[in-house]
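User: Could you check the structure of this?
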Amino acid sequence: MKRRAHAVFGVVALVLISAFMVASLVVEAVGDEKAVAGVKAAIALGACALVFSMIATGGTGTSLAGKDARGLRARLIEVKRRRMAVVAGIGLLVLVPCAVTLWRLSAEGAFGTAFYAIQAVEFAGGAVNLVLVGLNLRDGLRMTGRIRRPQLQGISGER
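Assistant: Sure, the predicted structure tokens are below.
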């Protein structure tokens, strides 16, 4: 049950990060200022769900890691922990403040240089978090044996 919860929370986080980025890109491309303000409000409120899913993912992951991990499993666990620390830092120190600020600015109709500079920071932080959470998902699937490490090929291309 714990393993399934960990997977669900991790996938929810990945989907939310992706949805926030896609919604922002689409509304900026085809929406008016009112639509942008609506999306920014939804993202700021949705950040609560994202923070919860990240905390739950980290908590269940720590619980699943155990203390007796050895070899490749131990290395993957440590890499996943380090990635999660970076994801949490970016999320709490960059993405949440950006989301709230963009929400406020868009509600005021302030779509100037500051808005777009903050949005660029938000996109960069979101992209980094998307990659890191995706890598953690991949490594989690490797640890459970659902995917295997790719075999390295020699210089001649033979296996």
